[in-house]
Design a protein that fits this description.
Low-confidence stretches: 1-30
Mean pLDDT: 84
Number of strands: 14
Distance between the termini: 70 Å
Strand content: over 45%
Strand order of the largest sheet: 1-2-3-4-5-6-7-8-9-10-11-12-13-14
CATH architecture: Beta Barrel
Radius of gyration: 23 Å
CATH superfamily: monomeric porin ompg
Length: 348
């Protein structure tokens, strides 16, 4: 019986520590929300992507990610976004883009949630006939909330179970926090030929370094670090039936770093690009292998991926990391019918 109680205590205490460490890390390093399909969440990656839609006038998208559901309650991240071109008829070799996004994340037993809403603007200027420079800015509001009553802490263990009537003695001062968040970014694109396109960008998030904490300022002054994000990608047509897209993404925020690299390819199924099969494989450094599959019909693209954990965490989640769904729709306004595209792109 004593051994059973000790094991029971160890299991419950381990889960408590695991969650609390995750919670503390989230507050200390405050790594932002992200998706494995970062290329299908362009406004989240870089505000300079706003309105960068070579073949169309607008696009809208949605993303959903379910992570670590096999370990506790896991994490669920979802978002919707959209952007469009403006004033293309007023600038001979450029245009303006505006857009917006809403993101929400819910994590852990304490229902730690983050909701953000951003608006972004970018200007795109052609440099000759084969290159484009883009600059963007974004501003938004971030709100975070936690249900402290759902959390248990080590000093609430009474020897048999966690007793919520025992004071936790944790220095929580608030159950919610909010702040203004500013971002900026630059992109450069090279349209080498009708069969090859290259693009790279750099963004800086949390320009104003807002404070994010559920504790009183006398306990901690948790000012967010700036987050630096770099990405590069290409589109290369192969034998008129494949468009191959190699990608690399790197992000750094305080002590948190993320590197994702891989490739996806579109296979023309209809002979005119109206229907395409999408296959891909990505790798997140020291974390996961990420196979991806999708289908595109006309201007609607649906892709799913699965993050298979390859880090030491696989002993806890059985290798089951996350799955993710992305839906993106692009289109032309009726008034744009027959107008030429200002910059070329690789397409079937």
């Amino acid at each position: 019986m004593t051994l059973f109680k000790e094991n029971n205590f160890f299991i419950k205490y381990s889960f408590c520590v695991l969650f609390f460490c995750s919670f503390v890390q989230a507050n200390l390093y405050a790594q932002d929300l992200n998706f494995s399909q970062y290329f299908n969440a362009p406004l989240l990656v870089n505000p300079a992507n706003t309105g960068f839609i070579p073949d169309n006038d607008y696009r809208i998208g949605g993303n959903y990610r379910n992570q670590w559901s096999s370990v506790g309650t896991g994490y669920k991240t979802m978002g919707v976004w959209g952007d469009t071109k403006l004033f293309g008829n007023r600038f001979e070799n450029g245009w303006l883009g505006i857009g917006g996004s809403i993101l929400k994340d819910v994590a852990g037993s304490g229902s730690l949630s983050s909701t953000s809403a951003h608006v972004s603007v970018a200007y795109h200027q052609m440099l000759g006939y084969k290159s484009l420079l883009s600059a963007g800015f974004s501003a938004g509001i971030v709100a975070k909330r936690i249900d402290i009553s759902k959390l248990n802490f080590d000093n609430q263990w009474n020897g048999q179970f966690f007793d919520i009537t025992i004071p936790s003695n944790e220095p929580f001062a608030y159950s919610q926090a909010g702040y203004l968040d500013l971002k900026m970014g630059l992109n450069y694109s090279l349209f080498a030929s009708e069969n090859a396109y290259f693009n790279a960008g750099l963004s800086i998030m949390h320009l104003n370094r807002p404070q994010e904490s559920f504790f009183a300022s006398s306990v901690t002054n948790n000012q967010l670090d700036m987050r630096y994000t770099f990405f590069a990608n290409a589109s290369i047509k192969v034998q008129n039936i494949w468009i191959v897209n190699p990608n690399i993404y790197f992000s750094n925020m305080g002590n948190a770093k993320e590197l994702v690299l891989g490739v996806n390819a579109n296979r023309d199924l209809s002979g005119d690009g109206a229907q395409q099969l999408i296959l891909g494989l990505y790798y997140r450094n020291n974390d996961a292998a990420i196979p991806m599959v999708g289908y595109q019909i006309n201007d609607l693209k649906i892709t799913v991926n699965y993050d298979a954990t390859i880090s030491t965490l696989k002993t806890l989640n059985g290798g089951r990391g996350a799955y993710e769904l992305s839906i993106v729709k692009q289109g032309l306004f009726p008034s744009s019918a027959g107008k030429s595209v200002k910059c070329p792109t690789v397409r079937f």
